[in-house]
Amino acid sequence: MRLNWLTQFAQIIVVLALAPLLTGVTRKIRSRLLRRRGASIAQPYCDLLKLIRKEVVVAENASWLFRAAPYVIFATTWVAAALVPTFAMGLPLGAAADMIVIVALLGTARFMLALAGLDVGTSFGGIGSSREMMFASLAEPAMLMAVFTLSLFAGSTELSSISSFMLGPHAGLNISLALALVALIIVAIGENARIPVDNPATHLELTMVHEAMILEYSGRHLAVIEAAASVKLLLYLSVIGCVFIPWGTAMAGANPIAYVIGFASYLLKLLLLGFLLSVFETAIAKMRVFRVPDFLGVALMLGLLGTMLLFVSKVPR
Amino acid sequence: MEHLGGLIHRMPITAVCFLAGCVAISALPPFNGFVSEWLTFQGILLSPQLPQWIPRLLVPAVGATLACSAALAAACFVKAFGMTFLGRPRGAAASGAHETDRWSQCAMLLFAVLCLAAGTLPGFVMDALAPVMQMILGARLAPQSTQPLLRIAPIDPARSAYNGALVLVMILVAAAATALIVRRFASHALRRSAIWDCGFPDASPATQYTPGSFAQPIRRVFGSTVFRAREHVAMPKPGDPGTARLHVDLHDTLWEALYLPVIRFIDSVTVRVNRLQFLTIRRYLTLVFSALVLLLIIVGVWR
Questions:
Q1: What is the mean pLDDT of chain B?
Q2: Does residue B30 sit in the same domain as residue B147?
Q3: Chain A CB within 8 Å of residue B26 CB
Q4: Distance separating alpha carbons of residues B206 and A191, to the nearest angstrom
Q5: Which residues in chain B touch residue A111, judged by CB atoms under 8 angstroms apart?
Q6: Domain around B257
Q7: With an 8 Å Cβ cutoff, are B209 and A137 in contact?
Q8: Which end of chain B has fewer CB atoms < 10 Å from its terminal CB, N or C?
Q9: Is the ipTM of this complex over 0.85?
Q10: Residue-wise pLDDT tens digits, A194-207
């Protein structure tokens, strides 16, 4: 029991410590693929350090919500990330909040971010918030449908149980799982503002969504929001890793070597998924904003199809 | 809503209560709407065990619809709160607004606190509602308030559990830890300045996103089929100083297909029957007499 809490605590720290590194690694791979040298993989840490040392410039008419929102966004994202088993199973907090809660916590973060975009009353903030909520109205149900497929398959909505089930003898190749995987990947790309949905590196005003919402932020507030965005990317890759590549994760109460193996395999999984993400991003062009609903709608339909197939094909547990 | 904005500065307590309500109705944790959504999803995930085929096929579609409506509700209430309370005032009514009296504030605060309480301690609410379930369905869930650590586990703790109080505590601890770390290591300098907006100085409040423009992407994605939304743009010719107009047509398909025919039928019948109110006394007497004869004939034939 004490070991489980220790794992949980380590996990809370690990997601926070690794998130900027993951962002740095994906940026690095992307620049290498584009035949650029790219910044060091530690650059996101330096960016965060630089930002928190800077003065904050707040618009004259910004309310308390504008200053509180970064902390709420970061806290909800961090809590959601801490609920995903990364290198070991059996997280005590996982028993209190399942995968539906993770989706909803990200929803709370998005809600606050969209409000923060509207607070100062600029046209860019409005455009960002409005488009973000339009994307979310398709991405969130798609994610929930993927969660439904997984939980119908594993007989539980809790991520640790789903991951253990995937390792067990009853799991096998299944068309519903494949559909859920594709849906999850599309949602992960959409929700993390990656190409082809949004470009995290752009400041082209009319194409940006996430950047438009946080345009008025500076200094430590911006640092907290950037950190939250990194944690969110790590969270999505961890969810995909822990459900679809569950091998190597340490079981609850295993010996210390299993934990070391679990950690190493977690790093490998992140590297692999980050590499695939970068390859996908360099291979595709950014979409027009009103083509994104079609892209995300595919995820919703695939998720629904996966759930439907499970509903008719067998009597799940 | 088109004339409001920036009310968070003039009505701070109303804004907090309104925000609590918005978060609750958008089914976001740690408020009460999420608990209801979570419980419904748990019910949906159990329904493959249903013996009948039709509900088994319908239930996943219901789940998808519920998930969609929760996400759309969030969009709706970002608009409701963002356009009314955030931004800059769009009209004189908003810039001259003031807070309501203490009693109204207390009433709003009470409901906001109740939303949070029902979201963090859902076990007690579920147990209080259990007699109603017993009366309607003849069955009820296992008592939830006796679960350890204030969690709810309607089916089986190994299958799914939710602990609203713990989620709230985790969010608060995480936010406090972040704030402390930032306070300890970050620069404390803060400067108030003009709005940045990518370098557009002195933009008037009319350049803000309006409720209509906020909803436009969603209208374009969902509205064109569900509500047959059509946009008509009337643009004046170059050199013509007249105003350009954007007009949106919306149709509620369900309303027009189901209710409108009934309403039209009732309307037309009432218009015809209405003439009976303006007859002369002779005609009324004739009417009463013929009705009597008709009824007697019916009675006679019936026998």
A1: 88
A2: yes
A3: yes
A4: 30
A5: 23, 26, 28, 74, 77-78
A6: 253-302
A7: no
A8: C
A9: yes
A10: 888 888 776 666 66
